[in-house]
């Protein structure tokens, strides 16, 4: 690894951190190399490259935590930070000798093509390919933003319980955002790709494919009708990603919120909190996914944690601090944005497990409702589970067929109530990536869900009426009533939208 300190040095620093007592102390040393490329207005506007190095030292005594960080990773620099932290969390606990033992990585997250072995010109080329393709699709495309980023993060973690971890995390991401306009109507489309992968990210999807999806979504929304409002059945396609499970459910299952009385799931372990068809899992061991990790940011091995099993609440997500309060082991969910932040319980790859039903049959068996193909932003109150989400791409279902696209739809409901209303779960599974914000820090995550039907949900829109109302259709939308187009929607092969 990058740092030159030996184990005996780290042991001495931990001794300093525990010099005034304490229940636990750890050291987190980080070197993070980042690259970012941004294209706007048809040219490269941003080309950033840099390295950040630093360390954080934490001391826990009872319910008190002291945290100090520094960008001086010499022995002297860390010893000074340890001394500062030691005064912040004192206890009468007798110090014990520390013998660091290296932990072995539980999962293989090696990449095929390291980003630092790829010339910057190759990365710029991919960005320009996406920009060029997006702009030539249709003259209604007025603005295109393309972003590429990669990070190589090397960490060393040591703690007073004898854990010693050396790890390297590599992540890459690629995003395209398109703005289309027709007269005074302006709509946007967004598509992202990312994971714990190197430059082989483009073997999964070419830059042009990402650009095509973003532009198609923006153009489709130009032709879409205003969404109706009312309470109706909602089918969430796998392609929509797991925004629902992440926001409306996942945060409420983080142990710190539960212990603070800020979670609707507090005190409900062992109770039925969702439909028997719903199993919720947080799994940091899924190779290649954006939230995957060998070890969390406390040196605990990445794990697969079943949180809700067949509707029954089984467990919460813990870091070391919250786990000690419940007299149990960490679940490997202690995460931090950087050495400047102390770890807190966070999600990794969170998903609703796939069922065994044909996704197309779920739609065919839905007489009226809304099909959500892509989720937008939203917010949730973890205390009571209430949420509101935007729908980036949605369609009205009529008599079991995808009838026409709608724009401006929102979903409003309560997380636990919605999970109880799931009555169909498909055999597919679709992932989305994101940066999850909490306590002022962001970490990379992914979320996923199968195609599933919610029997009733409040849909907000600007079109008035309800989903059963007869409405005239633009010619561009009439073809979406065919079964072949339904297959295209579910299999992510949306027809290209052109000016008619």
From TrEMBL:
Span of domain Metalloprotease TldD/E N-terminal: 25-87
Record flagged with keyword Hydrolase = yes
Keyword terms: Hydrolase, Metalloprotease, Protease
SUPFAM superfamilies found in the cross-reference section = Putative modulator of DNA gyrase, PmbA/TldD
| Gene Ontology terms: cellular component | cytosol
GO molecular function per UniProt? metallopeptidase activity
Q: Which InterPro entries match?
A: Metalloprtase-TldD/E_C (IPR045569), Metalloprtase-TldD/E_cen_dom (IPR045570), Metalloprtase-TldD/E_N (IPR002510), Peptidase_U62_metallo (IPR051463), TldD (IPR025502), TldD/PmbA_N (IPR035068), TldD/PmbA_sf (IPR036059)
Domain Metalloprotease TldD/E central: where?
A: 115-222
Every copy of the Metalloprotease TldD/E C-terminal domain together lies at 229-461
What biological-process GO terms show up in the record? proteolysis
Q: Entry's Pfam families?
A: PmbA_TldD_1st, PmbA_TldD_2nd, PmbA_TldD_3rd
The record, for Gene3D superfamilies, names: PmbA/TldD superfamily (3.30.2290.10)
Give me the ranges of the annotated region Disordered.
459-500
Which family is this sequence assigned to?
Belongs to the peptidase U62 family.
Q: Could you identify this protein by its name? A: TldD/PmbA family protein
Q: Which organism is it from?
A: Heliorestis convoluta
């Amino acid at each position: 690894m990058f740092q030159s300190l030996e184990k005996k040095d780290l042991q001495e620093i931990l001794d300093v951190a525990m010099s005034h007592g304490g229940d636990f102390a750890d050291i987190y040393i980080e070197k993070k190399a980042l690259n970012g490329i941004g294209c706007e207005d048809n040219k490269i506007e941003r080309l950033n490259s840099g390295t950040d190095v630093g360390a954080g030292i934490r001391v826990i005594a009872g319910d008190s935590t002291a945290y100090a960080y520094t960008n001086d990773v010499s022995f002297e620099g860390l010893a000074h930070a340890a001394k500062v932290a030691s005064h912040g969390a004192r206890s009468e606990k007798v110090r014990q000798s520390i013998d660091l033992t290296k932990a072995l990585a539980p999962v293989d997250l090696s990449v095929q093509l390291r980003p630092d072995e790829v010339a910057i010109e190759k990365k710029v080329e991919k960005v320009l390919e996406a920009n060029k393709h997006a702009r030539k699709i249709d003259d209604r495309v007025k603005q295109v933003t393309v972003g590429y980023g990669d990070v190589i993060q090397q960490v060393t973690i040591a703690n007073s319980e004898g854990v010693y971890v050396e790890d390297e995390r590599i992540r890459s991401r690629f995003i395209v955002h398109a703005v289309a306009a027709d007269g005074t109507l302006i709509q946007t489309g967004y598509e992202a790709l990312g994971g714990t992968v190197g430059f082989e990210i483009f073997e999964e999807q070419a830059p042009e494919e990402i650009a095509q999806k973003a532009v198609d979504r923006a153009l489709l929304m130009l032709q879409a009708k205003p969404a109706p409002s009312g309470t109706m059945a909602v089918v969430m396609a796998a392609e929509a990603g797991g925004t629902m499970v992440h926001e409306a459910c996942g945060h409420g299952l983080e142990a710190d919120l539960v212990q603070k009385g800020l979670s609707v799931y507090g005190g409900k372990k062992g109770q039925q909190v969702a439909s028997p068809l719903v199993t919720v899992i947080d799994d940091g061991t899924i190779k290649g996914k954006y939230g995957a990790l060998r070890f969390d940011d406390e040196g605990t091995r990445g794990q697969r944690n079943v949180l809700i099993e067949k509707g029954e609440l089984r467990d919460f997500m813990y870091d070391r601090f919250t786990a000690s309060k419940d007299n149990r082991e960490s679940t490997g969910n202690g995460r931090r944005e950087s050495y400047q932040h102390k770890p807190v319980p966070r999600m990794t790859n969170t998903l609703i497990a796939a069922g065994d039903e044909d996704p197309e049959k779920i739609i065919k068996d839905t007489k009226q409702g809304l099909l959500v193909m892509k989720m937008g932003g939203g917010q949730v109150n973890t205390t009571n589970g209430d949420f509101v989400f935007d729908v980036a791409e949605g369609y009205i279902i009529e008599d079991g067929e995808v009838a026409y696209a709608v724009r401006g739809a929102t979903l409003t409901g309560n997380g636990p109530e919605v999970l109880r209303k799931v009555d169909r779960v498909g055999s597919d599974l679709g992932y989305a990536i994101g940066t999850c914000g909490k306590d002022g820090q962001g970490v990379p995550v992914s979320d996923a869900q199968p195609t599933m039907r919610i029997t009733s949900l409040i849909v907000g829109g600007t079109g008035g009426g309800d989903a059963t109302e007869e409405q005239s259709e633009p010619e561009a939308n009439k073809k979406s009533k065919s079964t072949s187009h339904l297959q295209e929607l579910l299999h992510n092969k949306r027809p290209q939208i052109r000016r008619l």
